[in-house]
Amino acid sequence: MVNRKELNPEASAQAAFGARLRRLREERGWTQDHLGTLVGCSGRHISAIETGRKSPTLPFSRRADVALGTAGTTKSFEREWREIKHGILLEGFPEYVGYEARAVEIRLFQIGIVPGLLQTTEYAQALADGDVRRGSITAEQASERVAFLAERQAALLRDRPPMMLVVMDESCIRRPIGGDEVMDAQFQHLCRFAELPNSVLQVAPFDIGERRPFNLPVNLLTLPDRSMVAYAESHAQGHVDRESSAVLPLLTGYHQLQAASLSQADSVAMIREVRKGTP
User: Fold this and answer.
1) Which of left, alpha, beta for 137 (phi over 0: left; psi -120 to 50: alpha)?
2) pTM of this structure
3) The pLDDT value given to residue 88
């Protein structure tokens, strides 16, 4: 313990991987040698990964998931390794997703595209393929992105699913993505979502005008202890905020947005009209 190196998980994605590995190991009271035995390497190798001197590999990440019970979750080391290797996620987003998987209430506002948690696989794939054609990501990264979205969606299918309140700008349903078949299936999925007992779906119509309080997407989470988390992102970076001074004004604005938006019944009627091609 004398030579214990202090870790800075904010330094890089690799540093965050190592810091979390150490934290989960120490929570279980395991030594580096013990974890090394479980994953098939030396305690010295564990130390090198925890302190960022060595990069984790995919096989190591998978074995660590088995040893630490994180396999198949949104917090798996395999997913974190893929983030390091492929860079498919914005900075700050993995932290948000960890909160999202535990949230008891999720409030979303989206502009331009259907929110990720409500996207069909085909819709999400069409968006990712568009990024590939523009050269912003590789085909492999596109597959990773779609798979990661599926993991997020699956994490919400639990015994007590979160209450989901979603407001979409009208542009989300007016903008065609992936062609008629993809959009038709996406519209059906939205209508089914609106029928769930734990969901509220509203459309903020274009004529809301200046009454729309947000010009960027908004993600608000209520956690089991009733604390709240806000997430916002720019083109290059995401930011998680838990300070009430920053979160509460967003919650107020969200309530104002809901009041100005169409009711769920009228929102579903609009979606069905757009699905039929009604202007």
Assistant:
1) beta
2) 0.70
3) 58
